[in-house]
């Protein structure tokens, strides 16, 4: 029997951070290594055109994101790993999906509301339409499972709707995809723990996986904790980070102290930064390796795109016939 298919992606809008890792990428590696799924992972550079980044920066950021994902354990022998713009069928399918998607449904997307608030001077049509391109990314491979963070669940639901709208209008062709969440699907910002950790709020809000131990310590020292008894969102976020990155004994020690109301935030912060630094030690080294060996890294990506295109071409051949353009 064919394995269930997974698709997920990340935008090359900045260095990967702990939110991306705990919400999605850690899960990608786990699902890939389970051997139970046929995995497709992608760096979605066309999506990043909806933001303000300049072309030169984008070009280098795509490469950095690729190097970081490889260093985290995305294995091109086990997964199909590629860059979106190297498979032009993504944008072609997005156009077809545009024509079955009601505008009123896109207006409901909370990410559009958030993102247009963040870039008030550049509310472009692409920003409005990006969930449709995202649906095309997923359905081009007829993926049924989409490992993402909480913020993307609404878009995966839209993907299901788009499959249904297409199937009802033409014929039953696309499967219905489901989001797959992790234990911590929403990592909060260090400085504003009411909001998700996101690179769009600024560097001090996020811990990048490539941050040096000194920077991690500095950022976590400034994290908002609140003065409650470990129940406040900032402190909860730090406990969640500790659970994810520290050894079980250390975590348990802080849980016990929390029950007695004896957690000293200075100690908690030190434990969190030490554990994160240690956890990504190996990653930092591997990342350098992939960045330095640019020719090899780029070859991995072109091979990945060739593999992805085999599936993409087959889907689009069928879709063009189904909608009556060929
Ligand atoms: P965007 O910035 O448009 O949300 P990204 O490309 O940065 O998208 O996100 C890549 C993945 O990381 C997505 O699956 C997203 O849900 C997840 N993610 C991003 N931020 C967080 C966060 N703070 N907590 C958990 N998951 C997150």
TrEMBL record:
<dbReference type="GO" id="GO:0005524">
    <property type="term" value="F:ATP binding"/>
</dbReference>
<comment type="function">
    <text>Catalyzes the attachment of tryptophan to tRNA(Trp).</text>
</comment>
<dbReference type="GO" id="GO:0006436">
    <property type="term" value="P:tryptophanyl-tRNA aminoacylation"/>
</dbReference>
<feature type="binding site">
    <location>
        <position position="187"/>
    </location>
    <ligand>
        <name>ATP</name>
    </ligand>
</feature>
<dbReference type="InterPro" id="IPR014729">
    <property type="entry name" value="Rossmann-like_a/b/a_fold"/>
</dbReference>
<dbReference type="GO" id="GO:0004830">
    <property type="term" value="F:tryptophan-tRNA ligase activity"/>
</dbReference>
<keyword id="KW-0436">Ligase</keyword>
<dbReference type="Pfam" id="PF00579">
    <property type="entry name" value="tRNA-synt_1b"/>
</dbReference>
<feature type="short sequence motif" description="'KMSKS' region">
    <location>
        <begin position="196"/>
        <end position="200"/>
    </location>
</feature>
<keyword id="KW-0547">Nucleotide-binding</keyword>
<comment type="similarity">
    <text>Belongs to the class-I aminoacyl-tRNA synthetase family.</text>
</comment>
<keyword id="KW-0030">Aminoacyl-tRNA synthetase</keyword>
<feature type="binding site">
    <location>
        <position position="137"/>
    </location>
    <ligand>
        <name>L-tryptophan</name>
    </ligand>
</feature>
<feature type="binding site">
    <location>
        <begin position="149"/>
        <end position="151"/>
    </location>
    <ligand>
        <name>ATP</name>
    </ligand>
</feature>
<feature type="binding site">
    <location>
        <begin position="11"/>
        <end position="13"/>
    </location>
    <ligand>
        <name>ATP</name>
    </ligand>
</feature>
<keyword id="KW-0963">Cytoplasm</keyword>
<protein>
    <recommendedName>
        <fullName>Tryptophan--tRNA ligase</fullName>
        <ecNumber>6.1.1.2</ecNumber>
    </recommendedName>
</protein>
<dbReference type="InterPro" id="IPR002305">
    <property type="entry name" value="aa-tRNA-synth_Ic"/>
</dbReference>
<keyword id="KW-0648">Protein biosynthesis</keyword>
<dbReference type="InterPro" id="IPR001412">
    <property type="entry name" value="aa-tRNA-synth_I_CS"/>
</dbReference>
<dbReference type="GO" id="GO:0005829">
    <property type="term" value="C:cytosol"/>
</dbReference>
<dbReference type="InterPro" id="IPR024109">
    <property type="entry name" value="Trp-tRNA-ligase_bac-type"/>
</dbReference>
<feature type="binding site">
    <location>
        <begin position="19"/>
        <end position="20"/>
    </location>
    <ligand>
        <name>ATP</name>
    </ligand>
</feature>
<dbReference type="InterPro" id="IPR050203">
    <property type="entry name" value="Trp-tRNA_synthetase"/>
</dbReference>
<comment type="subunit">
    <text>Homodimer.</text>
</comment>
<feature type="binding site">
    <location>
        <begin position="196"/>
        <end position="200"/>
    </location>
    <ligand>
        <name>ATP</name>
    </ligand>
</feature>
<dbReference type="InterPro" id="IPR002306">
    <property type="entry name" value="Trp-tRNA-ligase"/>
</dbReference>
<keyword id="KW-0067">ATP-binding</keyword>
């Amino acid at each position: 029997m064919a394995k269930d298919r997974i698709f997920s992606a990340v935008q090359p809008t900045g260095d990967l951070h702990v939110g991306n890792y705990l919400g999605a990428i850690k899960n990608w590696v786990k699902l890939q290594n389970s051997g139970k799924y046929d995995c497709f992972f992608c760096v979605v550079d066309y999506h990043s055109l909806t933001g303000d980044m300049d072309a030169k920066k984008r070009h280098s950021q795509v490469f950095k994101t690729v190097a970081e994902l490889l260093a985290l354990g995305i294995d091109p022998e086990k997964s199909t790993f590629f860059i979106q713009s190297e498979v032009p069928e993504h944008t072609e399918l997005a156009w077809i999906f545009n024509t079955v998607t009601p505008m009123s449904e896109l207006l409901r997307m909370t990410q559009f509301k958030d993102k247009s608030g963040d870039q008030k001077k550049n509310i472009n049509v692409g920003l409005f339409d990006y969930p449709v391109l995202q649906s095309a990314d997923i359905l081009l491979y007829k993926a049924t499972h989409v490992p993402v963070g909480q913020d993307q669940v609404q878009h995966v639901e839209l993907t299901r709707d788009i499959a249904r709208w297409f199937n009802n209008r033409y014929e039953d062709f696309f499967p219905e995809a489901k989001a797959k969440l992790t234990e911590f699907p929403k990592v909060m910002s260090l400085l504003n723990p009411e909001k998700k950790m996101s690179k769009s709020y600024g560097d001090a809000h996020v811990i990048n996986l490539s941050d040096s131990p000194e920077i991690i310590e500095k950022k976590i020292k400034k994290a908002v904790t609140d003065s409650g008894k470990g129940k406040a969102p900032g402190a909860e976020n730090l406990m969640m980070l500790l659970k994810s990155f520290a050894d079980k004994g250390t975590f348990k020690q802080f849980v016990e102290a929390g029950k007695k109301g004896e957690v000293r935030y200075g100690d908690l912060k030190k434990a969190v930064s030490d554990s994160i630094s240690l956890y990504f030690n190996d990653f930092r080294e591997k990342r350098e390796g992939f960045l330095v060996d640019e020719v090899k890294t780029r070859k991995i990506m072109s091979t990945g795109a060739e593999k992805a295109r085999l599936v993409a071409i087959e889907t689009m051949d069928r879709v063009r016939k189904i909608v009556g353009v060929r």
